[in-house]
Every structure is written in structure tokens, then in C-alpha cells.
Amino acid sequence: MTRLMKEVSLLLGLIASTSAENSAICNDPSKYTGAAVLEDEMTCDDGVTTFGLATVSASETECWKMITNQMSDQEPKGMISRMFPYSMLGGPCCGGSGTVCDEWKFNPCADASKFNGTARATMGGPGSPSSECAEVQGAYNSFTASADTCAATVVSGMGNMTRNALLNLMAPCCTSGGTACDAYMFNPCKVASQFMPDLKPAQMGGGTCKTGVSRVPAFTPSLSTCSAVLAGSDGSMSRIAYVSLIANDYGCCGDKASACDAYSLMPCKDSSKFVAAGTVSNGTVSNDTTCGRFFKKSATFFADTESCKAMGPGGQATWSDGFEGIASFCCDDTPTVCDNPPAPTTTTLGVDVPPAPTTTMLGVDETSFACRSQTAQLVFVGTLTSLALSLALA
How many structural domains comprise the chain? Predict the structure, then answer.
């Protein structure tokens, strides 16, 4: 019995010694609880020992150092940042004092003090399993919020995304005040106050309007920026089409007017004849749409004799024929911009110069926008492309 008691005493002493060393991971070592059990039944002492954290001299470099993931069942084992086990252990093991690496942690909140590590965030989108916010902190490097850093692409387990989109997924981790990138998020509405970030359109499967715009790096609306191809769309969608989709179709803007509306296409030679409420249909297309919604999804077209006879998307009809197909619906049977268009203006160097664009919704004049051939390539998205072509061929 005496021998057994000695062995138990030695074991308890060893455990106490181990816990004393392991307590160095906490800002307040006296708050360390080595026997606390984590979600996977590992104790805090087990975790500190497994990842070799007891002897780490805390610094930004050491806390973010890549180490072998000793918890992985795969061979060879992958690599993780040391910040990940610190984030995993800090809450249950340090009694609220935090770890010695906390000052270099990634914090998604505009007010860092509003971060709630025990809250859960669904990092894979609606329907995906949630993760404890404190654990997610260890997966991403800290940063200083700015327009550039929030628009930057980060690598995540869900693929590449803007940091703005990543922080939007982590919004539940901030008890109030929003995320650090909210101030740099693109507002899709013509009138900023019309934006309804928390609205959940039926088309977004549980996502919010804020989720939709978080995928678009902020930009200043102009003819050139609205006409540009949306990053990540594989060239299949322009910014103006996406912004109109969010603002109008999804109803994220109370008045359904998007920030790019001023640069949308006007098909009628006399803009006063445009019938925004007219229904674009030839009786064979199932998803009828109004002329206003149809043309808000395309940027200004510089009409001249060359651009009007160019083939439209799909190569089945010219732009002139396409416009003619919708004239009765959208222009009240009056001429379109491709009826008797002007000749291209050419400089002495033989470079095409676009005529003054008098065809936008609001008559915006942006003659500085380069190259007519670029703007002639309007992007009619999805069913809208099919609709325009079917009308032209009907």
C-alpha cells in the first residue's frame, strides 16, 4: 500500500509539474486548467504537449509559424499555423485570460473587444456545419482593414474569396458593431440608404444581401467600372449585370435602383420613348421581364454603322436585329439607336473614337471611355441572352 501511495504521489507530482509548465500558454498562468476537456476528449495538457506549446517564446513570428498537424490521421501529416492550436486551447484552458499569442490573432470585428470566441459561425455557407469562432481565428493571418486589404483574395477551406466575404461569414462572431471590413463593402444601391444588408432574398438560399455584395470588391461606379467583367465570373457576367441582379431582381435596394443604373443601356433613339414597364416577350419565352430590368443589366452601347451590324452574343443576330426585335416592347414602336446610326468617328491616326454616348438611361456623357469595340461587347446574362436572340429571330 505504501509503495502504491508513493507511485500515485510521484504520478500526481509529474502531472502537477507538467501542468505548471503548460500554464505558460496563458496570459495568466494561474488560470490554466490542465485537466479541462476539449470537444474531442483531449485535455488541455494533452493539447499543449501534442503541439509542443509549453516552451514557445511568444512573438508574432513564432505564433504564426507553420508546424506539423499532429492531430491529423493522414500520412504524411499536413501543416497548420501554430496559432490554430492556441486558438483551440485558449478558451477552455485559460479561464478567460487568453493565450500569450492572442495579441497577434486575426480579429474580424470592427471593435476587437466585441469578438465572442464561443459564438459559432457557418464558414461554408448556409447548411454547412458551424465552427467555434475562436477556432476559426487560428486559420487566418491578422491584417489592418483598408479598401485594398478587404478586397484582397484570401485562401480558405472553401476556396479563394475576398477578405470581405470571409469576414461576412464571421459576422456572428462580433456581438455588435459589424466586421472590420463593413466600412469598405460595396453598396449596390444608387441611394446608399436604400440598401437592406440583412434582407434574405429567396433566391439566395438563406444568404443575406450583405453576403451577395461581399463578393464584389468595392469600386466607384462609372461607365468603365460598371462595364468591366465581374471578377470570378469566368467572363460570363459584367459588374452592371450582377449589381442590377442584387439591387433589382433580389430587391436588396428598397427602390430597386442600382449604383450602375446611370450607365445602363438605352435602346431607343428617343430616350423619352423608352417603356421601362413594357414586357419583353415574344410568346415563346417563359420568363418574361420588363424592359427596365432587361436593359439595366447591360452597359451603354456606342451605336454607329460598324457596331450595329456586328454580331451579338452567340453570333446568331446582329445588334441592329436584336434591337429591332424589342423595339415594339420597349421603344413604343419608335426607332432604336441602330436605326440610321452615325458613321464611326476616326482620328488622323486611324484610331476609332466612340461617338458621344447619348444613349444611357440618364444621358451620362463619358467620351473618355476608350475603344468602341470594347463597349460593343455587351453582356446579356443567362436567359436574357437567349431572350434577346429569340426576339431578333422571331
Answer: 4
